[in-house]
Write a structure and sequence with these properties.
Order of helices and strands of chain B: EEHEEEEHEEHEHEEHEHEEEE
Structural class of chain A: alpha/beta
CATH architecture of chain A: Alpha-Beta Barrel
Helix content of chain B: 10-25%
Helix content of chain A: 25-40%
Number of helices of chain A: 9
Distance between the termini of chain B: 41 Å
CATH topology of the largest domain in chain B: Rossmann fold
Largest sheet of chain B: 7 strands, mixed
Shape of chain B: globular
Oligomer: heterodimer
CATH architecture of the largest domain in chain B: 3-Layer(aba) Sandwich
Number of domains of chain A: 1
Number of domains of chain B: 2
Radius of gyration of chain B: 18 Å
Distance between the termini of chain A: 25 Å
Shape of chain A: globular
CATH class of chain A: Alpha Beta
Largest interface: A-B, 32 and 25 residues
Radius of gyration of chain A: 19 Å
Strand order of the largest sheet of chain A: 9-8-7-4-3-16-15-10
């Protein structure tokens, strides 16, 4: 049974990747999961300098999901390279670094620092965080902005470049195409959906930033649809995410066209999720006589189903 | 294992979790949710209340003191024997113990009693003279007084309605005690509502006594992954930093916390 998948020049032993912002710098989880058993670990978003992020409260739970506005609190790329990267290497983790910037130059600078460091497998370009005003999303919400920042970073690094796309646009597939045209090795999607929840008793916000990003099972069907739309338009690999809780959900994303998947919110719910999803995928491959997991990528059959056959609810 | 309703709001939920019990030190917490449900989606943090033992003294699990406040705590309040709870822990940094001749003063407000049962046991074992300043809304909400009494803990009670002990806030008798604290001094431990924690930390500082404060924050994961539960902490003259209360707390030096 072969669970490996390829993202550009990278081969991952399995498609399970820890999503940015949901796994600290990876090392927080070293007692819970063997980091080398994950396909990859994506760091928290990093700017050149340290950031404090937003004041708490920073999260609120909503039906089958949560809204967060952490505000990209982080230690900056230099401290990451010095303090975290050597330990991640020692654990045998394949490390993707989530790169942020307030300006195009900052994205390029951060990528240059990472290109000279040892132990970075890929760059995930954060052009989609909904929670900060400057930079980031202003590139991710404009096709020319996306093209420009991906092109600039492409020229600045030999590492695989993976823009992380926002779902808060009319047509996410066109942003995947712009990324591909600019030389991206893959795209990852979706980041969180801009959302808000009001405390009706006090008529006040539930989180300090008022608005934040919605994640968790609540967004999964929308994310699956977006991965499918991108899969039909671009040839580069897609890393799918959005509310994955188990093997069924991971396989759903792969059938829709994802080469690999990221798990975020569910890691908060159950930090032992990784082994369970891997075991579930192996069980699925046995039951469906799938020898190579990569054969499932985009294997969704969209031909119409007969309306008299009910979908078994527990399967969703 | 059991869900003992102390009142219409409070219950003591006992969990068969011997490994968690064996590893827990006073002040640490567990992340809990009813197993297999998506509402609530996230676990909630609870201080470990008691380490449970069988008749031969072997550790069988832990209990938590639950106060029904929202959806999640209501579901935990309603659990019956045999229901399964997902329990992650023990997590966080524990209280730092003190020993005689310094005294230990534990200040608890309402459900903030939770971390002090295990702390009182450990202080009793080391022979540290211990006092519990315990405030609640009414006398019906003062729980486990016999438990602390058996450990030799001196009880100073306060209720908002004056039904038992001092009428008003527990910080009033605490300040009286601080005014006449002996030369050996006291370590002030506190857990309870945020305004109480702030008042206790400031009182302790005013009377030149050290304090350790257990904070409660909205927490996503309990392991340092999500950066939800940050509190502003200031070391000396440095600028305040937002640090994660799950892995750098929940117990902090009261003098280092920055209050809004």
């Amino acid at each position: 049974m072969d669970l490996s998948v390829r993202i550009g020049s990278l081969t991952l032993p399995n498609p399970l990747i820890a999503a940015s912002g949901c796994f600290g710098y990876g090392l927080e989880y070293e007692q819970v999961v063997d980091l080398s058993t994950l396909g990859a670990v994506v760091s928290k978003g990093l700017f050149l300098k340290e950031r404090q992020g937003h004041p708490p409260p920073r999260i609120v739970e909503t039906p089958a999901g949560m809204i967060n506005a952490i505000g990209l609190q982080g230690i900056g790329v230099h401290r990451f390279v010095k303090e975290k990267l050597p330990q991640l290497r020692a654990h045998g983790a394949r490390t993707f670094v989530n790169v942020c910037g307030s300006t195009l130059d900052e994205y390029v600078e951060v990528c240059k620092v990472l290109s000279q460091a040892e132990g970075v497998s890929a760059i995930e370009l954060n052009i989609s965080c909904p929670n900060i005003k400057e930079g980031g999303i202003q590139f991710g919400c404009s096709l020319t902005g996306t093209y420009e920042v991906v092109s600039a970073v492409r020229k600045a690094t030999h590492l695989p470049v993976i823009p992380k796309l926002t779902p808060n646009v009319t047509d996410v597939a066109s942003f995947a195409r712009a990324s591909e045209d600019a030389g991206a090795d893959a795209v990852s999607l979706v980041n969180t959906f801009l959302a808000m929840a009001i405390d009706v008793e006090t008529r006040r916000p539930t989180i300090s930033n008022v608005m934040g990003g919605l994640s968790g099972p609540a967004i999964r069907p929308i994310a699956v649809r977006m991965v499918w739309e991108c899969y039909q338009l671009v040839k580069i690999p897609i890393i799918g995410m959005g509310g994955i809780t188990n093997a069924r959900d991971a396989i759903e994303f792969m059938l829709a066209g994802a080469t690999a998947v990221q798990i975020g919110t569910q890691n908060f719910v159950d930090p032992f999720v990784w082994g369970k999803v891997l075991a579930g995928i192996e069980d699925y491959m046995t039951r469906h006589k799938v020898e190579r997991l990569s054969d499932l990528i985009g294997a969704f059959d969209p031909s119409p189903v007969r309306g008299d056959k009910p979908v078994v609810g527990t399967n969703l | 294992m059991a869900n003992l309703r102390l009142s219409r709001e409070y219950s003591v939920l006992s969990l068969a979790a011997p490994e968690v019990g064996a590893r827990t030190r006073p002040g640490q917490f567990v992340m809990l949710k009813p197993a297999g449900v998506t509402d609530p989606l996230l676990r909630r943090p609870f201080s470990v209340f008691e380490i449970l033992r069988d008749s031969r003294g072997a550790i069988t699990g832990v209990s938590i003191l639950n106060k029904r406040a929202g959806r999640s705590t209501k579901r935990l309040y309603d659990l019956e024997v045999g229901d399964v709870v997902s329990c992650l822990g023990p997590l966080g940094l524990p209280f730092t113990p003190v020993s005689a001749p310094r005294q230990a003063w534990m200040v608890a407000g309402g459900v903030g009693l939770a971390p002090f049962a295990t702390l009182a046991e450990s202080l009793a074992a080391s022979g540290t003279p211990t006092t519990l300043f315990y405030g609640a809304r009414t006398s019906d909400e003062l729980f486990y007084l016999d438990f602390f009494g058996r450990l030799g803990v001196t009880l100073v009670l306060a209720t908002e309605d004056g039904g038992r002990g001092v009428k008003g806030r527990v910080t009033a008798p605490l300040e009286q005690a601080l005014k006449s604290v002996g030369a050996d001094g006291a370590m002030v431990y506190a857990c309870g509502p945020e305004p109480m924690l702030e008042a206790v930390a400031k009182l302790a500082a005013r009377y030149h006594q050290p304090s350790q404060v257990s904070v409660e924050r909205v927490m996503g994961c309990g392991l340092g992954g999500c950066y939800s539960c940050v509190v502003p902490v200031k070391h000396g003259n440095e600028e305040a930093n937002l640090v994660r209360s799950c892995i750098s707390g929940p117990v902090f030096d009261g003098a280092e916390l920055v209050w809004d």
